[in-house]
Structures are given as C-alpha cells and as structure tokens.
C-alpha cells in the first residue's frame, strides 16, 4: 500500500475497482450494457472509498469540515482517475488496437478467435498498468489539485 505524505488516498484497489478494466477486456465479446455495468461497479467502489476516507477523516481528533472535504475531493479525483478513467481508457485502446492488428496480421483466423485473443490481451495487461497509472495519477495530482488542498491531517487506515 502506498501512502503519499500529503495524500488522503492510499493505493489499495479492491477487486471491484478493476471491474471496468475487465469489462473493457470483454468489450469485443459482450453486449455494450455489460461493459457499461462494469463502469457502474467501479464507480460505486470510487464513491464508497471516498465516503470511507471522508468518514475516517471526520473521526480524527480536531478534524475540520474543510479537512474532511479536502480528503473527500482528493480521494474522489484520485480514485476516479486511477481506478476508472485512465485504466478503462488504456485497456480499451489496447484491445481496440489488438483487434485491428490481429485482423490485418491474421485475417484467416476467425473473428471470434481474434476477439478471444483480444480479451486475453486486455486481461493480461491489467496487472502491468496498475502501478504506472497509480504513480502517474499521484504525480499529476501532486502538481495540480493537491497544491490547493490541505491534506495535512491524515485519516487512519
């Protein structure tokens, strides 16, 4: 688990936080409603984690409403970017590109087989994108929104 010194967010993804990456991996094989529902699951995780961090901050001795709000904003933005937006986009593009490349490189392979290979590639990428995305989101937030948030009070884990 990664705890940034000025950050309310700990990098501790729940399996439900990966739902949209799994959905994007299966996009070629499943109906659109399935993919969209996985974003609902991942978004519910983001909201639940935001609530959890805000609640923990509110229970800190001497915690202010401002500190609770800042912890909630930091968590919501970080989780939305690191758990939903960036990984979903990344897996979507990996899968879309692999489907195009497979169609051009192996046109004799049946479409359904190419879709399964694309799904496997998407699923296989998930463990490799987590750390770089988390690090990149921390880096970007440290240089932007966190400059304006007071995150000096830390929620207890």
From TrEMBL:
Originating species: Portunus trituberculatus
Biological classification of the source: Eukaryota, Metazoa, Ecdysozoa, Arthropoda, Crustacea
Pfam families: MTP18
GO annotation, cellular component aspect: mitochondrion
GO annotation, biological process: mitochondrial fission
Name recorded for this polypeptide: Mitochondrial fission process protein 1
InterPro entries the record matches: Mitochondrial_18_kDa_protein (IPR019560)
Family (UniProt): Belongs to the MTFP1 family.
